[in-house]
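User: tokens in, sequence out, please.
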């Protein structure tokens, strides 16, 4: 079946000059991409990037998941506590991906300024941070199993 398709034609010119010009003509926000990305990396569980982008309702919901999960963990309710923190953590990872892809914009749906300039380095740092966190989790998990 694949022999019936001309893949060179299918994938040729998928991002044209007209696409680039249309992207550059979109309105740009006064909100900075680098600030939104940094807030998501450092304070993502608190919804800080959503507060910054002018999305207070979803930011508060995200913050409530984090606070509720933390309080429940303190009160020794690990199942529900971990559920709340896990939901907030997954939401943070999704927000980070949305910021890196340019999909999460300000409340007026304008693209963040500095996106084209900083997206590459920020994506690289994010990938290194994820690999580092996974390595750290592996080390901690292994040492807990051995020390057990």
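Assistant: Sequence out:
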């Amino acid at each position: 079946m694949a022999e019936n398709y001309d893949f060179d034609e299918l994938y040729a010119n998928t991002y044209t000059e007209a696409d680039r010009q249309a992207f550059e003509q979109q309105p740009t926000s006064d909100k900075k991409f680098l600030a939104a990305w940094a807030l998501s990396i450092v304070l993502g569980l608190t919804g800080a990037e959503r507060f910054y982008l002018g999305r207070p309702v979803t930011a508060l919901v995200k913050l409530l998941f984090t606070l509720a999960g933390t309080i429940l963990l303190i009160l020794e309710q690990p199942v529900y506590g971990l559920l709340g923190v896990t939901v907030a953590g997954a939401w943070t990872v999704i927000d980070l991906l949305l910021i890196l892809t340019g999909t999460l914009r300000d409340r007026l749906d304008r693209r963040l300024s500095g996106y084209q300039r900083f997206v590459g380095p920020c994506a690289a740092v994010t990938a290194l941070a994820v690999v580092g966190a996974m390595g750290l989790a592996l080390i901690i998990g292994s040492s807990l199993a051995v020390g057990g």
